[in-house]
Specification:
- The chain is an all-alpha fold and 383 residues long.
- The chain folds into 2 domains: 196 residues, no CATH class; 118 residues, Up-down Bundle (Four Helix Bundle (Hemerythrin (Met), subunit A)).
- It has a two-stranded antiparallel ribbon with strand order 1-2.
- Helix 9 crosses helix 12 and helix 13 packs antiparallel against helix 16.
- It is globular.
- A hairpin with a 2-residue loop joins strand 1 and strand 2.
- Helices cover 58% and strands 2% of the residues.
Length: 383
Amino acid sequence: MMRFRIELCVYGAQGLRLTRNAYLASLGGKEPGADNLPSFGTFPELPDGDVASGSDAAAAASATPSATPSASAAPKASAAPKASAAPKAKAEASAAPAASGSAGSVAARAVTGVERLPFTRFVSSCSGAARKEGGGVPDSEIERAVMEFDRWASTMNRQLMSIQRHFAAKQYEADKFERARVMNKEIVAHFGELDAKFAALHKAFLAWEASTPAPTEKLDKSGEVAFDALQKARAVAGILLGEKPDGEALKQALAALKTAREALIAEGKTSEPRRSMFPHELTSRLGRVLVAGDRASQSLGKPKSADADAYLLTYEMAGLVEAFHRALGQHMRVTGQTRPGAPLSPLRPRNEAVPGLRPDARGMRGIPGTRDAKPAAREEHPE
């Protein structure tokens, strides 16, 4: 569980870079105003479902629809005829991504009527990773690094969600941008610490990843092949998270990942589907990581697209980690590796200790005390 949370935190939080860059660029160093509304970024996303891999990765990337600005409030609020930074960014974003390599459909997420940035649910997992089990004091470098990062990231996440909702609801119209200017100063100050915070977290994370042993759970053959593929994917992400990503090393890591994925596909054809969920859960996700990795490899040395493509890879890595964790939980239940006498905690959309679940309107159906409460099927979690 600790590894699961730490990886979601590190991989998912990369979206903060895109938001920081887009926000600062859209305001141009000025305060928010009627003619100067902020943008919260364009987020590339691969199409839903399975995607091509290996030699077809480049074709899949180029065939993906062009990105449009995320459905944050800024572009909508700037519909007035006056020229502002947000509409300008919108026009440029619709035309530029195909050339920059950051093309992809936008991950527009709606939560109770308010659009969300796609990565914020992963940033919230930093808090879960920072909590020492039993309430003890952090006793390792990675625990201390995650705890230090979470002190900054949790505040950053709250400020970001707050200011985005402020513009989504057009609350600035009531006070003539008075509150917006205060919020802007706070978030710009926090953005200024982003690079240093990420550098410290990445350094500790990469050292920890290199020394972390295999899972203690007993895996079957398909589980071992899946874990090897996951390790190969982690190596790809590790290269991009380093201070100076090596293009040749990245290509070799992607080739190794492709081979590992093919091995998992072959294993899936011989294993019993009902007892081994690893091939079913991971094959498609590994293909998505391959496509995102190929795109990131092509954009190395191109500042305009490198950040967006690195984000896409780490976002897909977060999805891959979630898929492996799901398969591992199913494997543990089938093979009886849960602790006797200890019931598994149910997945609940509002349980902050279980990252990766968004407390949206649909997820709240069936929760006791809500208007749409219905008997909900009990879904278990290996924690």
